[in-house]
Amino acid sequence: RDGIATLPTTLAAQLGSRLRLGITVRRIVEHPRGFVVNTAGAGSIRTRAVVIATQPHVAADLPSGLDTAAAQAAAAIAAPPISVVFLGYARAQIAHPLDGIGYLAPSGENRQVNGSLFCSTMFPHRAPNGFVSLAAYVGGDRAPELARLASDELIEIAREEFAELLGANGEPVMARVRHWPRGLPQYRLGHRDLVATLNGISKRRPGLFLTGNYFDGVSVAACVAHAYNTAKHVSAHLLSQVDMVGGRRLMSGTF
């Protein structure tokens, strides 16, 4: 009901004080027993393992001094800008039954809107009774320049599209626009080779791991699956670094 933020919010609650927010990582350097994470304003953190779970352009910057191959592979993954136009209408304004989750527009139709989601059809509480909510996606790999248009121009593009395809009449009762300077990562020709290079970072630099939506898919399910698999590799690495002192196992945590 409260949106996809429910997932990270729940995870954060379980982590408690171990989660530290608002800290900018400047650099990651190797240390004889792992790594040192240099931050802005929060000092340095020593750790035996580091997981970089960011967008690819950030993943290209952080390990640049440790693994050139992985940094270059991450930098090669494009994530063109996209804008989301969220419009609300009275139900009577829309001729289409909205009896689906939305639509995708083939590139051959040369439309400015890549596709739309019928938000109020997909999920409850996305519009009051008697109203509907629609989201239009503009830009992306097809036309990144459109994503940079001003909000009023993007709203007009979405209105015209919905009028033609869905029979939307009149002014929307509400309109919101969200500009994303970087959108979804693009799985272009040669992506499998890039992923192989990225996955190899933990062998070339033991204890350093990458995860994100540019590996095995952009869906929540795909990201969770890859993250879980990464966590298993981190656990195996830490267990391999166990020190036997006085017959007891001592392990350091991760940052």
Structural description of this entry:
The structure is a single chain. The chain has helices at residues 6-15, 56-61, 68-75, 119-122, 144-147, 151-166, 191-199, 201-204, 220-240; strands at residues 24-31, 34-40, 44-47, 50-52, 82-90, 102-104, 113-117, 131-139, 174-180, 208-210, 243-245, 248-250. It is an alpha+beta fold and 255 residues long. The strands form four sheets. Strands 6-7-8-5-9 form a five-stranded antiparallel β-sheet. Strands 1-2-3 form a three-stranded antiparallel β-sheet, with no helix packed on it. Helix 3 runs antiparallel to helix 7. It is elongated, with a radius of gyration of 23 Å. It starts with 5 loop residues before the first helix and ends in a 5-residue tail after the last strand.
What is the C-alpha radius of gyration, as a whole number of Å? Answer: 23 Å
Question: How many distinct beta strands?
Answer: 12
Q: Please give the share of residues in helix.
A: 25-40%
Number of helices: 9
Structural class: alpha+beta
Mean pLDDT: 92
Query: From the structure provided, what is the oligomeric state, counting identical versus distinct chains?
Result: single chain
The H-and-E topology, N to C, reads as HEEEEHHEEEHEHHEHHEHEE
Q: Shape from CA axes? A: elongated
Q: Strand order across the biggest sheet?
A: 6-7-8-5-9
State the end-to-end CA separation. Answer: 31 Å
Low-confidence stretches: 244-248, 250-255
Largest sheet: 5 strands, antiparallel
The fraction of residues assigned to DSSP E strands is: 25-35%
